[in-house]
Write a structure and sequence with these properties.
single chain, alpha+beta, seven-stranded antiparallel sheet
Length: 412
């Protein structure tokens, strides 16, 4: 009887020890989700509850009816976007910015009172680091291989949708479903989520499997601010959108714009020519409208070192129907970038001294070249044959030599 009792005690200890061993990864994970874990093999501090399970708003904003006929699709930077075409309520406003030797091609949609309802600011792209973190836990081959067995598409889906919260399993479930690799994978997903959502957000919207929209704190009382995140081939693009508060038209623009927004990589000069060709076939009057201005500005985003686009943009803005306030932004950009605002109106021209001197020198060169061409043309018209022309030139050369000798004699 005593032997049976001792056997039961030993078995009890073995079961208990087994439970502790099986439950240990869950204990560490519970510590992780409760605020952070600091061990020699894993360090994650200040775990954010809202990043354990991303909460998306149930629905996006209701949309006023936006007819596609009022908008035009355009290749802008690395994106396909929609721009107002014949929209009765909206105008396109180019806002190029030159900041710390870096060009930021912003734009806005304004209403008939010239209020910015929607402001778009591209913020570049970042490479997603899918490699495993440096913690010792992830250097274990079993953990590393388990993560590497997942495709990037699956990983990204888990970043968007996976619930990383944790409930300690019962003994029965612990034995049946014991897989510590899943817990390690959860920590990996959390770290990747922190890498991508590296900003504080108030609300989150899931637009499609490759696009998220986050509402963030705004520094302007009249505007809400959103971050548009779009994922493409191992990269994600960040674009900031400012939206006029409590305005139905602005909300409708955001909804329509985001639904028709997708990645379309630029091919540089080739893309620029494609977009510019749409502008060049427009009648002159249409080039002066929102449609024309938005197309030439889009073409420039693929060749932003080409100042001729900005010069042409200013030419049409100065003559067009787009609000003249748009000119101030383009003037400022051109002056900061190249030393001239490229105004075709002499009274408005603003140039640095260096640019002015270079411009005058170039203009004088062109005048001299034109004079030489006209002189050559006069010679051709004055003589009936090449022999007559040659005879004239020889006499002129001799006359020049004689004058030169006379001058030398006089000087003596």
């Amino acid at each position: 009887m005593k032997a049976i009792f001792l056997l039961l005690v030993v078995l009890g200890f073995l079961v208990f020890d087994g439970y502790l061993i099986l439950n240990y990864p869950h204990q560490i994970y519970q510590e992780f989700v409760s605020g952070g874990v600091t061990r020699s093999y894993l360090k994650v501090k200040n775990v954010k509850k809202k990043n354990l399970k991303l909460k998306y708003e149930d629905s996006f904003w209701s949309e006023l009816y936006e007819s596609h006929s009022l908008w035009i699709s355009s290749h802008y930077l690395n994106f396909n976007i929609v721009l107002p075409y014949k929209h009765p309520l909206l105008r396109f406003r180019p806002i190029p910015v030159y900041d710390d030797k870096r060009t930021i091609p912003m734009f806005s949609f304004t209403d008939t009172k010239n209020t910015n309802l929607f402001v778009f600011r591209p913020s570049g792209r970042r490479k997603i680091n899918f490699s495993t973190p440096s913690d010792d836990l992830f250097s274990l081959k079993s953990v590393e291989n388990y993560i590497l067995s997942k495709s990037k598409r699956v990983i990204l889906k888990d970043v968007f949708k996976r619930d990383l919260n944790h409930q300690s399993p019962s003994l029965e479930n612990l034995v049946k479903e014991f897989n510590p690799l899943e817990l390690a994978y959860n920590v990996y997903i959390y770290k990747l989520r922190e890498q991508i959502l590296d900003f504080d957000f108030k609300k989150l919207y899931f637009l499609n499997p490759t696009t998220l929209m986050a509402q963030v704190d705004s520094f302007e009382d009249d505007y809400d601010t959103f971050m548009l995140l779009t994922f493409y081939k191992g990269f994600y693009y960040k674009n900031v959108i400012k939206l006029y508060k409590n305005d139905k038209i602005a909300l409708s623009i955001l909804n329509f714009f985001s639904k028709n927004f997708y990645i379309n990589p630029s091919r540089g000069v080739e893309t620029s020519r494609e977009v510019y060709s749409k502008f060049s076939i427009l009648p002159f009057k249409q080039r002066l409208t929102t449609q024309g201005i938005s197309l030439i500005y889009s073409a420039w985003t693929h060749e932003m070192d080409n100042q001729k686009f900005i010069q042409e943009l200013i030419y049409f803005l100065e003559r067009g129907e787009v609000e003249k306030i748009s000119l101030l932004d383009v003037y400022s950009y051109a002056r900061n970038r190249w030393g001239s605002n490229f105004s075709t109106i002499k009274e408005l021209r603003d140039e640095s001294l260096e640019f002015e001197n270079n411009r005058i020198e170039e203009e004088n060169k062109k005048i001299e070249e034109k004079r030489l061409i006209e002189d050559e043309s006069d010679l051709e018209q004055r003589f009936n044959s090449g022999e007559d022309k040659l005879d004239y030139l020889l006499k002129k050369a001799k006359s020049g030599d004689k004058k030169k000798r006379d001058n030398v004699y006089i000087q003596d």
